[in-house]
Specification:
heterodimer, A: 88 residues, alpha+beta, 3 helices, 2 strands, 61% helix, 16% strand, rod-shaped, B: 133 residues, mainly alpha, Rossmann fold, 8 helices, 51% helix, Cell division topological specificity factor (chain A), MinE_sf (chain A)
């Protein structure tokens, strides 16, 4: 082990810097995403609520992150009268 | 005023808080911006130079806030805290106390050059303070 590699082993700040940059980048992306999901949810619900009376408590929203594709899953329970109206 | 240590966990928490200040405060909700300052505490110039501690520039690059002061790591802080007294009153001549005093002057608009105060004591000083303690 030469002096240079000894110094490299001892220096922990560059590692701290890298870890920090990774964590921060990840967290900032996370915050942005959750705000986007909230916004999408509100706007989508507003559009649907214009035409159908929906119960806000019966709305489920899920974001799944895959390696290449992420999915936004909105599960909205429609009132029982919905099908009848449509059929009529 | 965001106070952070040159540690990964502390800088991470500060980044979160800055995010909240920019989005959840009354000012932010009104679309106004909140004036923010950064105080970096427990800083050890020698360790940072040795590559054993995040440097001031590293922290500033990540948090991108205007720096108000660098407070050096010092045993005086814990000593003051142990007796329930701010370090600025308990040992006003100590390096951290002088750094806080500088911070106040900068906040008041004085142009105080940014530096990290150090405890430079002569051998005799050390000798007497030890004896006194």
């Amino acid at each position: 082990m030469n002096l240079l590699s000894f110094l490299k082993v001892r220096q922990t700040a560059p590692q701290a810097r890298e870890r920090l940059q990774l964590i921060i980048a990840h967290e900032r992306a996370e915050v942005g995403r959750s705000q986007l999901v909230d916004l999408l949810r509100e706007e989508i619900l507003a559009v649907i609520a214009k035409h159908i009376a929906i119960d806000r408590d019966k709305v489920q929203i899920r974001v799944e992150q895959g390696q290449e594709v992420s999915t936004l899953d909105l599960d909205i329970e429609l009132p029982g009268s919905f099908h009848q109206k449509k059929a009529a | 005023m965001v106070v952070t240590n040159p540690e990964v966990s502390s800088v991470r928490d500060s980044d979160r808080i800055i995010g909240l200040l920019d989005s959840k405060t009354i000012k932010a909700e009104k679309g106004e911006t909140l004036e923010k300052h950064l105080i970096l505490t427990r800083y050890d110039t020698a360790r940072a130079a040795r590559g054993d501690m995040l440097k001031v520039e590293d922290v500033l690059e990540i948090l991108s806030l205007p720096l108000l002061a660098i407070i050096p790591d010092s045993q005086d802080v814990l000593r003051a805290s142990n007796v329930g007294c701010p370090v600025t009153l308990n040992s006003p001549l100590s390096a951290p106390a002088r750094a806080y005093a500088d911070a106040v002057r900068r906040l008041q608009g004085e142009a105080v050059p940014m530096s990290v105060p150090t405890d430079r004591r002569s051998f005799l000083d050390k000798f007497f303070t030890r004896r006194a303690a």
